[in-house]
Inverse folding.
């Protein structure tokens, strides 16, 4: 139960961070670092980051960033599949 709550919160935070960074980029304000955005994704917020990236059309053309985000998602998908198979 706590793991589910954690995942919900970290994905929401990751999603919101992408939206906030996009707004800051539009306004020319201080930005959220790519390291922090990827850190939120790596901490379990990969799906929220991917959803935020697509919905806000943010950081989609940054090839190294997008590739790293895809790698994080792939690792998280493998971990989720491994956990699911052990529970099944």
């Amino acid at each position: 139960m706590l793991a589910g709550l954690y995942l919900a919160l970290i994905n929401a935070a990751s999603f919101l961070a992408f939206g906030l960074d996009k707004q800051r980029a539009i306004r020319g304000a201080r930005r959220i670092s790519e390291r922090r955005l990827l850190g939120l994704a790596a901490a379990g917020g990969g799906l929220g980051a991917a959803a935020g990236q697509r919905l806000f059309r943010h950081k989609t053309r940054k090839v190294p960033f997008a590739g790293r985000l895809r790698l994080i998602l792939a690792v998280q998908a493998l971990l989720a599949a491994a956990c699911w198979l052990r529970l099944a």
Remarks:
- The chain has one domain: 2-87.
- Residues 2-87 form one domain.
- DSSP finds three helices and no strands in the chain.
- Residues 2-27 form the longest helix (26 residues).
